[in-house]
UniProtKB/TrEMBL annotation, chains A, B:
Residues annotated as domain ATPase BadF/BadG/BcrA/BcrD type: 7-312
Source organism: Polymorphospora lycopeni
Pfam families to which the protein is assigned, alphabetical: BcrAD_BadFG (PF01869)
SUPFAM superfamilies: Actin-like ATPase domain
InterPro entries found in the cross-reference section: ATPase_BadF, ATPase_NBD, Euk-type_GlcNAc_Kinase
Protein's UniProt name: BadF/BadG/BcrA/BcrD ATPase family protein
């Protein structure tokens, strides 16, 4: 009963997940709440979600037994630099009865640690956004991209969705027959095909205008919701979608290349919703990475909250074999 | 004194310009007011600017003598489809004493007509946005791009500005020495070089974060304000800027290629702030266009309000030589 406990948190734009585990790798509690990023949700709302997730995860245990904690979140630097958000998080920490401190790390490091206990390697994430990072001694040493949808996130879900619309507009303007990815995009954004003449330059322009208006009526980031159409069309061997996926893989591999030396042999962890499943993008990126770094083990990211918990646990005195603890908490996720 | 008059209007995002001329090509009045696009400024504000510009231009003449008018504006189709905006414009028309009707054309056609009286040709515009259009019988037949900054405007001022920041971020992440275009961008957005360590991954990441924050703190379209930095750096033979300009020229030529057949021999009019001066982009685009369409005359767009006035005048019974009228109103703008 005196075995100490650790808390790991994975704080994202759409969910906040908490995990409580023993230092021997037994998970005792889990909690989940809504998006808890103070940068995007505001400090109070984020703190509220953090409390919900922590309260649920800590319910089966005495919070006083927790001796280390780590949270991974996008924009960790902004939390650390924002005294209001930091104070709100500190208050929640007291309210749920935690006595230990907590480390704040970027989501990139937490995702890396969810895939491997190796101290040196690379992480590439493609979800709504995209980022690549070099990990040295389990700290984030260098980063490429992660610049957000306006300036970067090359190969991300946003990028895929925007490219899907761009290819659709080009297909219409060059008079391609309606099929494949452009057809999926038009149906998703417009319902049935737009018909009839327009005041300026005929039906093609009318369809183009309707598509542009459908996209610009929503927040730009909503383009990421079209990414699954690209994945679906690529699975059905649509050539336009296959080219979009190939380009995304090339861009993501290029981001890795900005932070990884040609001779590096550490693992490359693939994280984010577009890379952790058996998706065309993870397959294409795996090929591109193997070509450039044939010796690198490719690993799929696991549970980010468990990755953060492992990061918190590994420096505790009673954790004598961090790699074994990693295996118990996270298993092995080597790509086929 | 009984010679009839025409009115031309060039309605843009930053200015509304009106011109009154005789059908023999003598300009009698000009007016200028603020941005008058009803789509971006709202119907009432746009109508107010329209009235200011028209009132000034019509001051020297009897408005009852005006027998034809045309206005070129971006999103002409939206004005025609919006009864509120149309009614507001109609009210202004009555208030300033005009009795004739008015044609509404896209800014692309007005820009084309400001460069040439030839009935068939192409127009390519690069200002804040970018669009290419095929003109047949002095109507806009087909269009490529003009999709706005989120989805397109490839090779536009927005595109140049965003690309300038992207190249700057890449230069920082790959450890390039600070010089040329990246140096101009950093100085413009951050003032002096950012220094010191960051909480996540060192000074490079800190500069990257500061740049991303400086850009995302403003409306996306503000990126277009960085386009002059690209032009300036390209003039100073900076290789990064030269590559950005070359890519923009290729994208603009590609947009022209979507709407112009390989054998087309009509003129190509270059319009918009990035193409009407002696700029590196107009030179690079001129080269790209000459390579693909060696027989096409390349022409610089002139005064859009005069182009619209000519469009209005050319069908009047007392205009027997539209080409001669075009020459008197707009001169000749063939590129060297």
């Amino acid at each position: 009963m005196s075995e100490s406990l650790v808390v790991g948190l994975d704080i994202g734009g759409t969910s906040t997940r908490a995990l409580v585990a023993t230092t021997t790798g037994t998970v005792l509690g889990r909690g989940r709440a809504g998006g808890g990023n103070p940068t995007t949700h505001g400090a109070d709302a984020a703190a509220g979600e953090l409390r919900l997730a922590l309260t649920a995860a800590l319910a089966p245990v005495d919070p006083g037994r927790v001796s280390a904690a780590a949270m991974g979140l996008a924009g960790a630097g902004r939390l650390l630099a924002d005294p209001v958000a930091r104070a709100a998080f500190d208050r929640v920490w007291d309210q749920v009865g935690l006595r230990c401190g907590y480390d704040v790390t970027g989501d990139a490091l937490a995702a890396y640690a969810s895939g491997t206990p190796h101290p040196d390697g690379s992480i590439v994430i493609a979800g709504t956004g995209a980022i690549a990072g070099e990990i040295r001694d389990l700290t984030l040493h260098r980063v490429a991209d992660g610049h957000g949808w306006l300036l970067g996130d090359a190969g991300s879900g946003f990028w895929l969705g925007r490219e899907a619309v761009r290819r659709t507009l080009a297909a219409i303007e060059t008079g391609q027959p309606r099929s494949g990815l452009p057809d999926l995009v038009m149906t998703e954004l417009l319902g049935d095909p737009a018909t009839g003449g327009g005041p300026r330059a005929g039906p093609a322009r009318r369809t183009v205008d309707a598509l542009v208006q459908a996209v610009t009526a929503r927040p730009p980031i909503a383009l990421a919701a079209l990414a699954p159409l690209v994945v679906r069309a690529a699975r059905a061997d649509d050539p336009v979608a296959a080219d979009v996926i190939a380009t995304a893989a090339r861009l993501l591999a290029g981001s890795v290349g900005r932070i990884r030396g040609d001779g590096d042999r550490g693992p490359i962890v693939l994280g984010g919703g577009l890379l952790t499943g058996d998706t065309p993008l993870s397959a294409a990126l795996g090929d591109a990475l193997r070509e450039r770094w044939p010796a690198a083990p490719l690993v799929t990211a696991g549970d980010g909250a468990a990755g953060a918990a492992w990061l918190a646990a590994r420096t505790l005195p009673d954790v004598t074999d961090p790699a074994a603890l990693h295996h118990r908490l996270l298993g092995a996720g080597v790509l086929p």
